[in-house]
């Protein structure tokens, strides 16, 4: 009986799990509304290090459940360590994160447009790059 009652609740929880988590980007240079073409936090230095820390939190709360802890894919979603660091890779990264991915009506990855700030998205990108070095 307990099982029958618990089952629907458990399913609802599994769905609710996906709620995007805001990322506190205090300490990073604010970027405004114009999207950068390339990662503004890529260059080595104190801001790069801060972006890695902030990006780790953003990644763990928004991406890890599909793309894997420490950016090591368990096979459910592509291994993001394989992304390069060219301008084209940056464009692909932001278009995917903002727009998500779907096949027909089935959402494979939710869009993060309007949910994560530009600062948070580039910080996550910086963290991912740091995991592939
Ligand atoms: C619900 C699971 C899920 C979540 C959450 C998720 N993704 Fe994805 N992501 C996927 C899947 C599945 C794909 C592959 C889509 C396809 O087949 O086109 C993908 C593709 C991508 C790609 C393209 C990779 C490539 O090699 O082409 C990027 C970049 C990416 N995700 C980044 C992120 C980031 C950053 C986050 C967190 C902000 C995130 N994803 C959250 C499931 C997810």
TrEMBL record:
Start and end residues of each Cytochrome c domain? 50-132
Gene3D superfamilies reported for this sequence: Cytochrome c-like domain (1.10.760.10)
List keywords of the entry alphabetically: Electron transport, Heme, Iron, Metal-binding, Transport
Write out the coiled-coil annotation as residue ranges: none
Name one matching Pfam family. Answer: Cytochrome_CBB3
For this protein, the parts annotated as crossing the membrane are: none
**Molecular function terms in GO for this entry?**
electron transfer activity; heme binding; metal ion binding
**The protein's name:** Cytochrome C
The root-end lineage is: Bacteria, Pseudomonadati, Pseudomonadota, Alphaproteobacteria, Hyphomicrobiales
């Amino acid at each position: 009986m307990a099982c029958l009652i618990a089952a629907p609740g458990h399913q609802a929880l599994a769905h609710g799990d996906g709620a995007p988590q805001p990322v506190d980007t205090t300490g990073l240079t604010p970027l405004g509304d114009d999207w950068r073409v390339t990662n503004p936090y890529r260059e080595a230095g104190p801001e790069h290090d801060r972006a890695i820390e902030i990006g780790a939190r953003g990644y763990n709360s928004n991406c890890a459940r599909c793309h894997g802890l420490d950016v090591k894919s368990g096979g459910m979603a592509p291994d993001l360590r394989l992304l390069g660091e060219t301008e084209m890779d940056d464009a692909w990264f932001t278009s995917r994160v903002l727009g998500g991915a779907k096949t027909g009506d089935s959402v494979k990855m939710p869009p993060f447009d309007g949910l994560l700030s530009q600062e948070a998205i580039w910080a996550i990108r910086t963290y991912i790059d740091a995991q592939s070095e």
